[in-house]
Amino acid sequence: MDLDVVELSRLQFAMTAMYHFLFVPLTLGLSILVAIMETVYVMTSRPIWRQMTKFWGTLFGINFVLGVATGITMEFQFGMNWSYYSHYVGDIFGAPLAVEGLMAFFLEATFVGLFFFGWDKLSRRGHLTVTWLVALGSNFSALWILIANGWMQNPVGSVFNPMSMRMEMTSFYDVVFNEVAQAKFVHTVSAGYVTAAVFVLGVSAWYLLKNRHVELARRSIAVAASFGLASALSVVVLGDESGYSVTHSQKMKLAAIEAMWETEPAPAAFTAFGFPDQEARETHYAIHIPYAMGLIGTRSLTHEIPGIKELVEDAETRIRSGLIAYEALMQIRSEREAAPEAVKARFEDHGADLGFALLLKRYVDDPLQATDEEISLAANDTVPTVWPLFWAFRIMVALGFGFIAVMAYFFYVASFRNMTFPRPALMLAVIMIPAPWIAAELGWFVAEFGRQPWTVDGVLPTALSVSHLSITQVALTLAGFVALYSTLFLIEMGLMIKYIRKGPYLDMPISGNRPDAPTSEPTPGRTSGLQPAE
């Protein structure tokens, strides 16, 4: 398999996934925030909360549409660029995607129309129910997608069938309740909540700086700060849980993130700073925090954490074990039902390492003909490039703690200082709007780049997963996707900026929080069809 095609296919999927994830976190968080705002409106009957719900709901709608447009094409790539992957694991990977489409996406897409056009056609409680169903649909979509992705990180509940040459599901329960998938779901959703909170906080701060829509902005800041603080704290806690699960399921990824070349005796230290040197296999100018990695990775002070060098040796051992499984597999395939029981037993004993033998396909057509040097090269391929993982993780963590600090400050001022926000604080809130997207993209980079060289960890190498396409075909589709998605991103940015500048549509008087009170600011012109007809 031409490795240039593999790299281009990886790049194409990475580009489309990262473009798509520009829209996902805001959809996840803003749907919940909008539902909270409408809940307050239904409970209090104050028109300002209806106005807030409509305004932030409009921005949610713009983002939702672009998220759907960029997300649908991603699933087609599995058949287009990753056909052997789809054949090899489709029975398992396809199940959560199908459930996501039937259970979550249809729920979300069905009720989103009622949210926008049902304001004067449904009762208050009926419309609130619709809003919460949209929010639940958004989050259920994330759940099933992350169950599918979590299985790729930790392939439980499945077994390889030597007769069909495919992975088959043995336990749907194990796939759904995979510890990696559940940890990824709560961590990713919480990150989406932080994204929406920072977005609402930043836009509201901009209104206060411009002295526009002050009542809406102050209340939005109060909601965003409290919701964002809880979410930012949960991201850190749940991210710690993700790190703990990686210790069990993806030891090499953890070692690469930590640039941990040698096995760390208990209790392992956390490397706060350093410059990883993969060629020399050492980290220069490293600054360590004693005991921290032991507590994060093992929840104890008595368990060591294996380093990259030891894991490479372990990978070489597993490659040699996998060759035994590969040899037995070839005999089973040739003799079918007549294969001796001893051969089948040998495959069962070593079948868990078959994927490691397939790493040799990069160097030799028949893994059984691999030399010791090629086995050593394949074992070293299990080490991802360390320095980008090392720094991406640390920047992500630093941003996470920054969100906690900012949200805590705004929560304190909103709760105990009568919302008297200094201009520098408001300017900081505006400037930091892109930060959660940067953190989210870095998180996905760590998760996916750290899994290499595997499409399905320990089961199917990336180099074997791609379709038989030419470099030209992949390069042209890559260029087309980048051009299309860039255009869609610019359209979304233009629409979001347009509606933020225009501000909320005042369909009811809001001053004094009474329907009969005079308005305190002029009513902007009516917006486009994204706003429900009055």
Automatic annotation (TrEMBL):
Coiled-coil region(s): none
Transmembrane region(s): 20-43, 55-74, 94-118, 130-152, 190-209, 221-239, 391-413, 425-447, 467-491
Topology relative to the membrane: Multi-pass membrane protein
Keywords: Cell inner membrane, Cell membrane, Electron transport, Heme, Iron, Membrane, Metal-binding, Transmembrane, Transmembrane helix, Transport
Annotated GO CC locations: cytochrome complex; plasma membrane
Residue segments, region Disordered: 511-534
A GO biological-process term: aerobic electron transport chain
Main location: membrane
Top-level division of the source organism's lineage: Bacteria
Subcellular location: Cell inner membrane
Keyword field contains Cytoplasm: no
Composition bias type Polar residues, residue spans: 520-534
Single annotated GO MF: electron transfer activity
Protein family membership: Belongs to the cytochrome ubiquinol oxidase subunit 1 family.
Name of the featured protein: Cytochrome ubiquinol oxidase subunit I
